[in-house]
Amino acid sequence: MKPIFYIFLFQSLLLISSYADVIGVKGSIDFDVNFDFQSEMTLTRDGLGVGVTPSSNLHVQGNALVTGDLSVGGEGGSSNLNIHGSLGFNSPATITSNTTLSDHSVYFVDSSSDHIVVTLPYAGNVIGRMLWIKKTNPSNHVMVSCEASNFFADGFSGKRLGSGHYGALRCMSSSDNTWVILNIMDCDGHQWSLDNVNLAFRVDASKSSSIQSDGSGNVSQWNDLSENGYHLTQAADNSHPETGVETMNGLNMIKGVVN
């Protein structure tokens, strides 16, 4: 009866190994979900690896999807991603020449040798991505530009971080295929605005209160908004420029000639 028992045991083991989901090999447990003798998941003393032999507690090769909340470094929180501790990025990419951005989130732009054009990827291909661009040298300027079919949300195709300053720009790609500027810093580290630029004079056709015109839109004076008093005037009645007849990016324009 012993030979029959041994044959039965061998056949049973062969049947089990042919249909097993889990195969133990050399101190690890390999999960063969597709029954093709290829491990889709591996458990070792180092951790659990999905698509890869793990080198940490959890090691995923490829994409990971979390449908609920994820807490790192502790428990609880009020957001989908809760980090109890510090947040870090991989080493920022350093740029020294004209470059189209790709896989990094943080870029240091060294403009010490020349002006540099940094081109953003097409927003529609990276919806939701955030980029930090930091000018690390005051020499020359850095132009943050979009591709031909790509624009910032305000309609401009580029933003400049000027020479003489350590500028920075933070932006995010939107679902309408544009880049939205979240923050832009220039002018010795202050956020750029007309209020912190020393201008001789400033006019703005979108400020209707600064335009003196008759009922037909003929402009006799365009006031200086810098408070320096350099108003633009046209005394000749037959040469008055016009307001309210043309726009650019949805903003009013002055059409004609002023003195």
Mean pLDDT value: 82
Which structural class is indicated by helix and strand composition? mainly beta
Measured as a percent range, the helix fraction is under 10%
Cα distance spanning the termini: 117 Å
What is the number of independent domains? 3
Number of strands: 23
Run of helices and strands: HEEEEEEEEEEEEEEEEEEEEEEE
Shape: elongated
Give unreliable regions as ranges. 4-10, 12-20, 187-191
Our Rg estimate from Cα atoms comes to 32 Å
The largest β sheet comes out as: 7 strands, mixed
What this model shows, in words?
- The protein has 259 residues and is mainly beta.
- The protein is 7% helix and 36% strand.
- The strands form 6 sheets. Strands 8, 10, 12, 14, 16, 17 and 18 form a 7-stranded mixed sheet that branches.
Structure, briefly:
Helices cover 7% and strands 36% of the residues.
What's the topology here?
Elements: H1 2-19, E1 22-25, E2 28-31, E3 41-44, E4 47-50, E5 58-60, E6 70-72, E7 81-83, E8 93-95, E9 99-100, E10 106-109, E11 116-119, E12 130-135, E13 142-145, E14 151-152, E15 158-161, E16 168-173, E17 178-186, E18 190-191, E19 211-213, E20 219-222, E21 232-233, E22 242-248, E23 251-255
Parallel strand pairs: 4-5, 6-7, 8-10, 9-11, 10-12, 11-13, 14-17
Antiparallel strand pairs: 1-2, 2-3, 3-4, 12-16, 13-15, 16-17, 17-18, 19-20, 20-21, 22-23
